[in-house]
């Protein structure tokens, strides 16, 4: 598990993994597929499909249709290169740092916002866990709750309701 792998190194590993996957699944190795993988690897955190679409055009001058992008992101998820978070209204994606991500996710059950956090103690605990003969490749941890904004909004409505009752 190495969360500090350089982006360029990560891209090489991801491209190699993707090539193997395409071959095994008899999918064509098209330039646009590799442009997508490389762009995905340029993200350090979460991104939405919409962001990816814009970045493809801005940084690579590569215009792909949303359908193509969607299709390929599914391939990337399936090959284990990308993790999909489907918690809010819109799915968020992130590259899967080899061996699993060392960060965890706080998910607001009200607005669906996802924030990442790090916790060394929890991370070390996870690494120490043995689950029978299952070989662990990583964890995706979600902590559910309310973000500060939603929590404040809720307090405000509760206060107003109390006023009405009084
Ligand atoms: Zn919220
Ligand atoms: Zn994440």
Short structural description:
This protein has 166 residues and is α+β, with helices and mostly antiparallel strands. Helices cover 49% and strands 14% of the residues. A hairpin with a 6-residue loop joins β1 (82-85) and β2.
The shape, in one word, is globular
Query: How many runs of DSSP E, i.e. beta strands?
Result: 5
Sheet of most strands: 3 strands, mixed
Strand content: 5-15%
Class of the largest domain, according to the CATH hierarchy?
Answer: Mainly Alpha
Helix content: 40-55%
Tally of domains? 2
Q: First CA to last CA: what distance?
A: 57 Å
CATH superfamily of the largest domain, please? Winged helix-like DNA-binding domain superfamily/Winged helix DNA-binding domain
| Known CATH architecture of the largest domain | Orthogonal Bundle
Bound molecules: zinc ion
Numbering strands along the chain, what is their spatial order in the largest sheet? Answer: 4-3-5
Summarize the helix and strand pattern as letters.
HHHHEEEEHEH
Individual helix count: 6
CATH fold-level topology of the largest domain = Arc Repressor Mutant, subunit A
- Uncertain regions: pLDDT < 50 for 5+ in a row? none
Estimated structural class: alpha+beta
Average the pLDDT over all residues and give the rounded result. Answer: 86
| Rg (CA only) | 19 Å
């Amino acid at each position: 598990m190495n969360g500090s792998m350089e982006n360029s190194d990560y891209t090489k590993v991801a491209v190699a993994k993707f090539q193997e996957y395409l071959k095994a699944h008899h999918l064509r190795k098209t330039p646009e597929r590799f442009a997508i993988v490389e762009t995905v690897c340029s993200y350090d955190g979460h991104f939405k499909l919409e962001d990816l679409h814009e970045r493809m055009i801005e940084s690579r001058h590569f215009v792909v249709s949303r359908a193509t992008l969607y299709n390929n992101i599914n391939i990337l998820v399936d090959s284990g290169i990308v993790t999909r978070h489907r918690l809010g209204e819109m799915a968020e994606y992130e590259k899967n740092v080899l061996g699993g991500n060392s960060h965890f996710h706080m998910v607001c059950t009200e607005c669906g916002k996802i924030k990442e956090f790090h916790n060394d103690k929890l991370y070390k605990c996870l690494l120490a866990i043995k689950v029978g003969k299952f070989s662990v490749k990583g964890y995706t941890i979600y902590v559910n709750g309310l973000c500060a904004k939603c929590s404040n909004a809720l307090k405000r409505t509760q206060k107003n309701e109390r006023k009405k009752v009084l």
